[in-house]
Amino acid sequence: MTIDLRLGDCLEIMRAMPDASVDAIITDPPYGVNIADWDKTIPPKEVLQECLRVSRGLVLWFGGAHTNSIAQFISLDPIPDRVLIWHVTFSLSGARTNGIFYKWHPIYCWRLPKKHNGISRDVLECATAKKNGYNHPAKKPEKLMEQIIAGFTNEGDTIMDCFMGSGTTVAEALKLGRNAIGIEINPQYFEIAQRRIAEAQAQMTLNFAEATA
Hints:
Layout: E1 3-7, H1 10-15, E2 24-27, H2 45-54, E3 59-62, H3 67-73, E4 82-88, H4 92-98, E5 104-110, E6 123-126, H5 142-152, E7 158-161, H6 168-175, E8 179-184, H7 187-212
Parallel strand pairs: 1-8, 2-3, 2-7, 4-6, 7-8
Antiparallel strand pairs: 3-5, 4-5
């Protein structure tokens, strides 16, 4: 599998990419909730337009459950074709941390495939991400990304994450036999993603060696 990691502004990088050069974009852009310097606003409309140009198929963006971020996302042009829901599996520890009503996130989709491999409904249930040393404030669960990648893309596809963060999407794409492009503007998170993806590659090599021994 081919992995291409790029440090820089995703808008500038995508502008240099050809039309329809990836099969799908699956990403988690800033929500505009000000949890960090880079999360004061959602991406400008030009980022969505470039995603739709660069991807020949699915464009999937995670959104926040906060009222202000929902209002911002639904003002995007074009508006999403479909909205899925990530329902966070309830736990007492999660309720204590996040509040009992903080249990869902919208997932905005453009060009969602008609065939969903193993996904039969629009509500995806999964627990929040576990602490695993890959520090990022908006980390997505590996199981959720596995479900989305396996459900909406095919083996051998090229998937791009233009807000790569700690590299969850790219690492899971690799494990599922997809090619991946990851773009991250923050050098600290880019370094974390590099390390995480290298570890995933090493583990896959070890698993293959053990299976063929």
